[in-house]
Design a protein that fits this description.
By secondary structure, the protein is mainly alpha-helical. It is 70% helix and 1% strand.
Length: 504
């Protein structure tokens, strides 16, 4: 009997993803599950359930899409076991994300009852007015995400607080979520600490800092346009919410003990992420510190939530555990604060986790039958010009975000498929890595059943449909990269004049 050594246990990295190819499967067969899924989701959302579709029916539709893909696979000589193996690998790859989601729910609960989120809102209302609020959201989230390299951490900390401030100011939550995500994904895209920023150049065959430098050419104009749009929106906002600020501030102050010392907890979490502490550990520490802060700053509230008249060990334990695990609310008479002063704990994230698991089933079966590789190859064959190659890459990233429901696959699969084609055109690998980020990383949040879309809508409490239009940076980025390709702006070549024969 051999003993397994710790060095034998190697976690699967996104770049190690095996791309399943199936020569029996043609493009039209590969697209059958995609068309079926789109038709079923369209009917389910627009005719049957509307905004309630994410409560469970969309999850089942994703499973039905997976069933259609499985039937296509069986007709093309793919074993059911192989499909289930890919599903298992897909779900395994999201296990970290699912645990992070649970921990974000726990963190939101303790940060609520400790007063951390209300304190952020309290001071934020005094600093930010409606005119500059949306542009400020973009800038604040961009700074935090560049520092942490994580759009997810940014949303789970300052993002939640900014949503609360916007609600108090009477500003559309969809607008605010769009501004938060625009800033958060700016940082996620260019921070050297970001996993996708490291993954894209690894797939394309260039180095990290060449990739970041080359990405700035498209990223800076896109974020500049985003900021200008939000400034214009801010100047034209109805600022009626500002009149109620004093009343809301008084209500917050009377409901909970406000203290600037509470900012220490989020500062510690951000510091841990910057120091490359695994997000799961950083969020766990943030949750525990939030619980400790609740006992110190809000003892009466914790006792009340724990069913006691005064704080003792049992009522304190119950109060903190309730905040971590189930629905919790701070009592308030102010109607505007009802939503802000409530959190779902870990149980509040179960719907989002359910959605991600079902999306991974669909994506896993699509990968298992070879549909993802077939679709990418077909897109690659459609274009023969340099611009066409860029357009094909963008289309593949979008298609993978839609079908595989995973941001990493939307970078890995096109990255592996297109690296040779870019070299054959004489294009430097940073062209590919930049395009992967411009179209794969940032658009994942625009799809409700993608892991990123499900996470962000769950954490911020705003549906993808509500923030889609306002996530300007995210949907504008692919257009910017195509614009640069069309006009040959900053398209670096491996060697000179061979490209004279290439049509544009």
């Amino acid at each position: 009997m051999s003993t397994m050594q710790s060095e034998d246990i190697k976690p699967r990295e996104p770049q190690d993803e095996h791309i399943v190819e199936n020569k029996e499967l043609n493009i039209w067969e590969a697209l059958i599950p995609v068309f079926a899924l789109i038709i079923m989701l369209f009917y389910n959302v627009f005719f049957a359930f509307g905004d309630d579709a994410l409560s469970g029916s969309n999850q089942f539709i994703l499973l039905m899409g997976g069933a259609v893909a499985a039937v296509v696979g069986i007709f093309n000589k793919v074993s059911f076991e192989q499909m289930m193996e890919e599903v298992a690998e897909n779900i395994k790859s999201t296990s970290g994300a699912l645990l992070i989601l649970l921990m974000v729910g726990a963190l939101a609960g303790t940060w609520l009852i400790s007063g951390i989120i209300p304190t952020m809102v309290y001071y934020g209302l005094q600093i930010l007015n409606p005119t500059i609020f949306l542009a400020s959201c973009v800038i604040i989230c961009a700074i935090i995400s560049v520092a942490t390299g994580s759009s997810w951490t940014t949303s789970a900390t300052v993002g939640i607080a900014l949503i609360g401030i916007s609600d108090a100011l009477g500003i559309s939550l969809g607008m605010t979520a769009g501004a938060v995500l625009s800033g958060a994904y700016f940082g996620d895209k260019i921070s050297p600490l970001s996993d996708t920023t490291n993954l894209a150049p690894a797939m394309a065959g260039t180095d990290l800092f060449t990739h970041i430098k080359y990405m700035l050419y498209t990223t800076v104009p896109t974020i500049t346009v985003t900021l200008i749009v939000f400034i214009i929106i801010g100047l034209n906002l109805d600022t009626s919410g500002a009149a109620d600020t004093s009343e809301i501030l008084a209500a917050v102050d009377s409901s909970i003990n406000i203290s600037p010392w509470l900012f220490i907890v989020p500062a510690v979490v951000i510091f841990l992420i910057i120091k490359k502490t695994p997000p799961l550990i950083a969020l766990l520490i943030g949750t525990l510190l939030g619980g400790l802060a609740a006992l110190i700053f809000q003892p009466e509230l914790v006792a009340q939530l724990g069913g006691g008249k005064s704080l003792d060990f049992l009522s304190g334990y119950r109060g903190i555990m309730n905040a971590i695990t189930v629905d919790t609310a701070i009592p308030t008479e102010n109607a505007a604060l009802k939503d802000l002063f409530s959190a779902g704990g870990m149980s509040g994230m179960l719907g989002t986790i359910w959605l991600i698991v079902c999306a991974m089933v669909f994506g896993g079966i699509m990968d298992g039958i070879g549909a993802l590789a077939t679709i990418s190859k077909a897109l690659l064959k459609m274009f023969h010009t340099t611009f066409g190659l860029f357009a094909s890459t963008v289309a593949s990233c979008l298609a993978l975000n839609l079908t595989a429901s995973d941001q990493y696959l939307a970078i890995v699969v096109p990255g592996k498929m297109y690296a040779k084609a870019f070299r054959e055109k004489g294009l430097a690998p940073e062209n590919l890595s930049r395009t992967l980020e411009d179209s794969g990383t940032v658009t994942s949040v625009l799809i409700p059943w993608n892991t990123c879309g499900a996470y962000q809508s769950g954490v911020l409490g705003v549906s993808v449909a509500d923030y889609f239009v306002y996530a300007i940076f995210n949907w504008l980025s692919p257009f910017t990269t195509l614009l640069f390709a069309a006009f040959r702006i900053k398209i670096r070549m491996l060697s000179a004049p061979k490209e004279a024969s290439v049509k544009t």
